[in-house]
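Weekly modeling sync, notes
Attendees: S.R. (lead), two postdocs, one rotation student

Agenda item 3: backlog of single-chain predictions. S.R. asked that every request posted to the team notebook include the full sequence so nobody has to chase files. The rotation student volunteered to paste the first one in as an example of the format we agreed on. Action items at the bottom.

Example entry:
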Amino acid sequence: MALRLPRPHRFDAFVAAGGLLGGLLLWGIGLGTRRADDPIVLLDGRWPLLLPLAVMAGCEVLRRAAPRLALVTGTAALTLDTMTQGSVVTLIMFTDVVYAAVLYGTPASARRVPWVTGLLTVAATVVPFAVWRVPEALLIGVGVGVVSFAPASTGLIVRNHRDAAEAARLRAEQTALLAEMDRTQAVVAERARMARELHDMVANHLSAIAIHSTAALSLDDPATSREALSVVRENSVEGLAEMRRLIGILRDGSGDREPAAAPTLDGLDALVEGARANGLDVSLRADHADVPAPVELAAYRIVQESLTNALKHASPGRVSVALAQRDGVLDVRVSSPYGHRDGPRAPGSGSGLVGMRERAALLGGTFTAGPEGARWTVHAVLPVTGTAGTAEGDSA
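Predicted structure, as returned to the notebook:
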């Protein structure tokens, strides 16, 4: 299977071409790093130094695409160059190959190359001095350090800075992504809160309006029609007031309007009286002490929606509302007659049960709704401990 090398970077090709042209220029004017009579020169003449120069230029082409191959091949080319009169351009290109091997190579190469070049520098310093015992021998270690260890260390420093910058960029992107997710979740939660508020505040009044306006239209009795229209007007006014309260909640913080106080369990008597005025036979039994505001609001809304559903769907008979606080929970139970009817007295969307279930879930409670024998029972269990900091969002 043929070995396919990655495509070289354009900048690396320019570096290689510049190095090759520079080396040819110095070769043309006869400038080398060693004299022809130097004992280390094993290959006489000026032509042999062109081979390591050309090989090193090829390594520069691969400095980014294949840094490990470029380093190994470049080391062999530099070794061959030491047997000739030498070229300073070959030496300079080798330092760049070492630098690129650390900067663009694998993390393992980035760790090993500085260690290896450091050990070579130490060995090139200690061994010649121990053999020849002359200070000039230390210059060999200096040369090896400049050619190998210095570019390797520089590449490691640049790589560490680059990795730190990349990690900071990724952290910034993750932070921005998390912030966007939080914002999206907050918007969804706020939309759900507004949907619950709109449904709970206005639906019961509109249901009463629909029922009594139907009665006024279907009965040819002026007294009954007048009574029904009075109820329609009363619920229209109350629904308008509730709608204004919702607008106040939406404008809260803008300085335009302060929202009205959220309903509490103290308002259950008025809520039941309103249901009775709409034609329901309702009994109320409430046994509770002080409970957190989110629990009060959720319980009030559950009772309110249950009475609205009873007004629209229940069979004739008594509707019972019972609240009891026990064992750290507030037990809310609304029961209404359940049986065959021709159809609801007012249209419904089914979102009321969804809203009640959401309110209970937000507080960590439970919610059930369904027939129990001949009655339809709505039952919610709301914890009253550990909910002081629960932000249902509807207590605004």
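Discussion: group reviewed the output briefly. The first strand starts at residue 281 and ends at 287.
Action items: rotation student to repeat for the remaining queue; S.R. to check formatting next week.
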